[in-house]
Amino acid sequence: MLDPPRLEVAASIKLCRQAGIRVIMITGDNKGTAVAICRRIGIFGEEDDVEALAFTGREFDELSPAEQVDAVTNARCFARVEPSHKSKIVEILQGMDEITAMTGDGVNDAPALKKAEIGIAMGSGTAVAKSASEMVLADDNFSSIVAAVEEGRAIYNNMKHIFLTAALGFPEALIPVQLLWVNLVTDGLPATALGFNPPDLDIMEKPPRNAKEALISGWLFFRYLAIGSTVGAAAWWFVLSEDGPQVSLYHLCAADNPDFEGLDCEVFESPYPMTMALSVLVTIEMCNALNSLSENQSLLRMPPWENVWLLGAICLSMSLHFLILYVEPLPVIFQITPLDTTQWMMVLKISLPVILLDEVLKFVARNFLDFGNERTEKPTPRSGCSLACLEGISWPFVFVSLPLVLWIYSFDTNVTAMLWP
After folding, report:
1. What is the recorded membrane topology of this protein (predicted)?
2. Mean per-residue pLDDT for 237-247?
3. Nearest Cα to 172, choosing from 99, 252, 117, 108?
């Protein structure tokens, strides 16, 4: 007689190990049977010595408290256990600041299900087990737990992306009606679409995050500052332009400032600088929305069409911005003026570098920063550095974006000569 494990369990166990999730079998079955099943599903390797990796409930009771902690730290299988053993194992893991998820289907599993941070009951289990759990598996499938972990990590990352909008905007360059337009209309659509971001490509190759860590880490805060400073500088480029009035508080307060010689007051009434500032801010927000497609993955590997909702939101936001620029009487209401092709090229030149900046920050995060413990199982190393670097790149995105960027930066755009005649 044979009761084989589900075919997808072994792959799910391997994925858990890559994600830094430790899987422990706790069962009332015979130790030999439990070890054999563990070997079949990948908890144990075929050559693993299970002497220090598998314990019965009686063997566990005979250990000293310190030895029990060591056993729980290293073991992957507990057989012939009683309900009290399950609760004890959960307590020891929690004492080591581990986040525990316990599965079960019977009445005797209820205490451990209740004690664990995440109790997971089987859909075919008893009502007592279900009521003691936070989650019920309708299909009784272990792979559903792995899928839930992946989706949960993606939701957490998408929540962090929303906070990036707090670093955007430089209100001193815009009037209130323009700020309302940016915050409520052009910025709101991409921010909503970011909630539909797909999971990162390596989301299940990272260890679990520390439950005590802040939502905004020090590195993420630094990235916000870097991106926000870039956005602010881009929106204010015309004020400090070498050919412009170079306005500052000192200049405005100083009498007979020599920097204003040869400039009449009409330079401060021109609608072009404010229009450029608004257009740069809107465009750079769209670029930043593309950056937020993934927390650490490059756009070369996760191209924009991975989230079609985001692409649609960006197109709609830019269409609305064109609407207030070119459809009367909206330019009068927003106190802006239509821009020509040369000015739009300048807007793109100022806005696009924010993508390059965030790509550099993502590269640093992926390759040089350690955000947790080393993953339990690392991917097989690739032969050849160049091939490894090129693997996974979306070549259609490269072939579309690279010529477009080169064409934009080939334009001659001396906009300051137009703004400050």
Report:
1. Multi-pass membrane protein
2. 52
3. 252
